[in-house]
Structures are given as C-alpha cells and as structure tokens.
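Exercise: predict the fold of this chain.
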Amino acid sequence: MKFELKDYQTDAVAEVLDNLKDARDDFHRERPRRSAFSLTAVTGAGKTVMAAAIIEALFVGNDDLAFPADPGAVVLWFTSDPALNEQTRHRIHQAADRIPYDHLQVIGSTFSEEKLSPGRVYFLNTQKLARTSLLVRGGGETVDAPLIAPDMRARTFWEILSNTIEDPDLTLYLILDEAHRGMKPQTTRERDEKSSIVRQLINGEAGAPPIPIVLGVSATVQRFNDAMAGAEGRSILPNVVVDPVRVQDSGLLKDDIRLSFPTESGQFDTVLLRVAVQRARESTDLWRNYSEQQGLTEEPVHPLLVVQVPNKPTDAMLLDALATITDEWPELSHDAIANVFSGGNTLQVGQYSVPYVSPEDVQDRSHIRVLLAKDAISTGWDCPRAEVLVSFRPAQDETHITQLLGRMVRTPLARRIPGDDRLNSVDCLLPFFNRATATNVADVMLGHTLDRPEAPTPHDGPRLLIAPKDMRANAAIDDGIWTVFDQLPTETVPRRGARPTRRLNGLAHALAYDGLLPDARKQATEQMLDVLDGLAARYAKKVSERVKDITTLSAETIVAHVQSGMLSVGTSFSELADERTIDAEFKAASRVLGAAFASAYADRLEDVFDDGYFTAHLRAAALAKVDEVPSEVDRAAFDITEDWFGRFRVAIKGLPDERRALYADLRALAAEPLTVPISRPRVRSESTQSTDGRPVPTREKHLMSDDFGAYPIGDLRPLEVSILDQELPFSTAWYRNPGRASTDALAIAYQDRQGRWARLCPDFIFFTQVGDVVKPSIVDPHGDWIGDALPKLKGLARYAEWCGDSFHRIEAVSVVNGTLRVLDLTNAKVRNLVESAADATEAYLSDQAHDY
C-alpha cells in the first residue's frame, strides 16, 4: 500500500481477511458453501482505502497480517453508479501500488471473455445487467481493450460468470459498494428493474450459479444484511464493524460542526451569505498562516465555500447570491466560482458565467473557491478542503443539508491540527432556518432520528457547536500551572499486529529523512545484525537442529494388503528440501526478524559460507525458528527505538506538525501502552448557546477562556457540573479534558471486555496547591451501570499504578443508589479491589469506596 493505514483500518482489514480466508476454504471444500458478510464504517472512514488493502492482500498476500495470497482470486466490484466505479478505480490505483492499473478493468457493454482472469478487479454497474443491455445479450470487450471479432460477441456476461465460478482454480469475490443500494423493500416495478439485479447477481441468473463470496461495503448495510439472511444456502460470517469512535479519534474527520442561524424573524439570506463569505476568507487566512508556519508551501490548503441552493433556484436567487459573494470577496478570480448542477452546463446568470466542474475534480482544482451545489452532489463525493457551507434550502430540507454536510467532514490534511479546534471544524450557516428547525439539523447530525442510520451519535462523531466562541490560553493562569500541565503523562493505545522491528525501521527512516540522524538506517541495521549474530552464537546448537528440520523431510510408507485387509509399516525415507522450501521458510523468517533486517542478515551470511545464497537464507530461517529468538529480537528492536525516542525527544518537538504526527504514530506502534508528552491546546471552541436558545453557563479558572476569563460548560452533564462545582473552591485551575484522541488530551489505554485496546479520556484535571507545589488530580465521573465501566476502571487503576506519583489524586466517581461514591485509585487496596470486582457497582459499594 502507498498509504499507511490508520490503526482502525488495519484492524478492519485483518478481520475482513480472516473472514475471506474462511470463506475461500468453505467454497473450495468437497461440498462448497457460499458466504456473505459486510464491512461497515461511517462516511469518511476510508472504506475504499481499506478495500484496496484487502484486494492487494488477496492478490499478493500481506506479510504483516500473515495472510497468504490467493493465486485464483478474482474481484468483481459492483455499484449502481458508473461514475462511482471510475472514481473507485482511480482511488484503488492511488492506494495500492502492487496492483497494476491495467488489472483494474471497467466492464463495457460488449465485454466478452471466456472467464474473468485472476489477479484482476472488474468494475460493473447495475445498468450493464439490465435485460436490454448488450452485455446480457452478448458482449465483446472491456472499455480498455481493442475490439474483437464479431463472431466472438455471442457470449453473455452470465455465461462468463458461470465459467469463472465453476473453474476450480478460481475464487470469485463480489464486493458490493454502498451495499444498501438495491436492497430496499421493492415495489413490483422495482422488482422487475434494477433493484432486483443485485439479488440476481448474488443468487444466480440465466444459468449462472450464485456468487461464492459476497462482501458488502457501506456506511450502513442493514438492508444488505437482511437480504443476505434470506438467501438460501449461504452462511453469514461475522460482520466487520468499524468503531465510529476510533474513526473520529484518527483525525480523518473534523471534530466540530459550527452551526449558525437567525435568532429573529426576517429575511437574512444575503446577510448570512455575507457572514459565510467572511468565514471562508477567515479560514483562508488561518490556513495560509498555518501553512507558512508549518512549511506547507507546496500543498497549502485552499478552503472552499459551498453554497447550496434548492433544486430549482430562481435566477433572482442566484443573481443575489453571486452579487453578494463577489461584493464581499472582490479579489476572487473570474474562474473561482463553479457549479456542480446536474446537466454539466455552464450557468449563465446576468453578467455572471459560472462554469460546470465534475464533483470529483473539485478537490484538486484549488483555484475554485466557491461552489454552487444542490443536493448531496453525488454518491461518493467528498471535498476535504470544503470548510464553509451556506444553505438556501427551505427549512423542511434538513436531510438534504445534512447529507451534503456529511460530505464535508474530512480533514484537509487527513490529520487533526494539534490543539486548534478552529482548524478542525466546518461551518454551516442556515439563512432560512429558525432555532426550532435548526435543532432538527442538530438532531439529524447527532443521530437522534431513526431515518439516518449512518449519522453519528454524540459520542462517536463531530461535536455540534451553536454560536461557538474560540477560547485561548487564560491570561489569569500562572505559567507554573502550564508547566505542570506540560508534564502530564498521556498514553498511546497499542495496535494490533505491531512489530518492534517494523517500528524501529520506520523510526530510522523518519530520523534520516528529517536529518536528525542521517545514518539511522545504517545504525539500526548494524545494531540488529549484531543482535542476530549474538543470538546465533548463543543458540548455535538449536540453530543446527532447526537447519536439519528445514532441510530434511522424514516420512514412511504404510502398505495396505488387499487380500488380507491388513496394514503394515513399510519403509521409512527422507528427502532434502529444495530452494522453494528454503525461500518459503525465509519469507516466514522475515516476519519474525523484520524484512529489512532478515535480508541484511542473509547478505552478511553470504560472505561467510561458500555456497552463499542457499546456506545464508537457510541459516537465517533456522535462527528465526528457535523458540527464544522472536522475543529477543523484539526486545532488542524495542530498546533501540525507545533509546532513540529519548535522545531525539526535543528535536522531534521542534518539527512541523505533520512530521510530529508521523513520530506519534510510530511511537504508538507498540504492543503495550507507552507514555508520551501532552501538548498544550492552542484554540478551544465551545458553544455559547444551547439548542433552545438559552445562554450556556460558564465557569472561571479553566486553562482556556474567552477574553473575560470564562469557559462555557454547556456540554457537561449534570453529574459533571456537580463534580466541577464541588472541586473548584479547592482548585487553582482546571481543565476539561477533550474526549477525543487529540494531542492536547490526557489519554489512558484500557482493554475492553473482548480484550481489545481502547482509549479513555478522563473528564477533568484539577490543579491544587499542595504545600509548596501545584499537583494535578484526575477526577472522572462515569456511570457504574454502563457496559464499559469496569474495563475503564481497570485501565485507570493500571495507569494509577504506573503514573500515580505524578498526581495528587486519581479518582473515579459514580452515583450509586442516589449517593456520589468515589474510588481513589492511587490506593493499592482500591486497585486490587477493582481488579477482582465482578462489576463496577460492586467496587463502588465496597468499603474501599467512600462518599464523595
């Protein structure tokens, strides 16, 4: 892959590949069994990138995930939209560097081959399987291939499909993109048209057998799952569901949606449009400053203003809008405004000529700064540089607004900007909405309605900010408290399949690239080769035994006597391994020793042995098979990596955010939680009004504040407000810890009930004068009845054992039987209690807890 997958993407890919391996085995058994399952992830999670990694692994394998290639793999990618197929084809080519572009083929109307070929992805859309389609009646060639003889065009696609499925050397994988399409309840007409085509494809049509393996990929696949449940003779494998919290934590999606609307009656369409233009210009300045500060001069962010109009906008509306935009933003160039209206025509309104641009091209055409749109523009469209939306849709069209807004939530740099809520947000202005109708948009965006199954919930999507205000460092807070804040230990979340050798190799590349340690790769290789030499000497006898195991196959023959029906043991024999066996064993060793280090070690051994290549690779493979070696190699790579992180800690802090983010990812690429430095927040945005129009209450002494030293607390629950008000009189300062995986959040790793690592961000950090020093305290209100209450308590207890000396208190608080109860996790007895408790309520009711 050309892209480094996010941790949640790696986990999802691994789970999908596990399912596909089982599905492949089931299909090629003596009595074949067909399978289906889904990959579900919210919009913006990078489903196409995950799919590209899955397909690449099918074709060439994935060593990191120990997934072998399927030499007979054929992938059929199916959607209802030809444009989406072309877009997906382009994205897969961008992401997967081991799939040749000519192996990504769009099936044209005249496609006709005997069967689909292994190692290829074929793109097909619903229209091509309509009964009137030439492809169904007999086709000819792919859109990328030359025409073939007319007498070869009698073969139908159903026959091609049948030949492919019935070939024992092939495995056909069907990927349904946006799998909910075509699965909805059907009318009689729809059943005869394209809605039935998906079912025909899956279950078999015109003599073609059913598709062996079906993978649905979408933001919501309930209808797909229902359809699969009704399919005969198909086993449903466990669905792979990407946790929306992890997607939000990744930094791929914007954290905040800033919602603005009129608070009084009147005609405010052009007024709020002017405000939208002002915010787009402000965003332009902010991104320009950030780009210059970070040295992003080659690829700066050029924010886009999206102006959404009704499906049939009047010329008067468009003329007023264009006049307002150009008056408020006079320096816009003549080609800076474009439209994506259906029809693809230049829009001529008065003296304004607004050219059409294809939706998928908007992101890359950075000279376009204002975009006129209608609905959600198109399936699969997204534009990370879209920063401001103003909608002229009427008040009853909240669904159309939220659909378009949902296409604008990707972050421009595919990462969170550290500590800056303003650059991690998108603005939405609604001129024709009042508070009540704007609340409907808020409800839909926060997942409070039943007709939006793909919408986020308050805890797994972006925050919705109403009348937001930006908070900056509170001038009343002493610098000494900020110094204490800088020393707070935050933790990384361990990642599945993390290998210390891969982490070391990645760090070496990074240090060399940034000039911090120019020969880092050479040093890493030399140190690891010295480790391997030492292990080979220490375990020389075991290495020799493993060499014999690899090179010699022992076997015996059992003789069955036909007349007597007796069995007897015949001769025993042995056979020497060939080069293919050694190559396979060395490939397995590369997963243990690290591919780069295994290759370098074999090169070193070639100079030692007369027969060079064969013995060198054999002995490297044998060393990796010694039981003690994998853990020793991992420990050595870990120690070198941690030593370098310590030596270059200050230098790494001085790098631009993009490079620091890379080092943070490398730091987190570990099998156990590691403590890392916390970063100071730069800009914190908070709502100043509630959805019912009331001002949000504020409190003082927060590390971040407005110009008057106040910090809004509208997002706090009643329990949290109660805790805050009881703690403030005894605190010199406090910090509302972000609930997301930002660098300015104190995070604690914990294991959920399935043993998977997750992140806990305690609600509050209080700073208290203790003698001559200021000490921080963690106070985390958390319901004891919630399913993850006990795992989070255990994570907090583990953290307190490791880092408790850095804090005055580490306390978990809950309401039990109407009483506030607290567990002080700096106490060893309390930690032991938490570890042995059956549930969180038992811990809070024990004599080790006390009233708050």
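Check your answer against the key: Residues 269-294 form the longest helix (26 residues).
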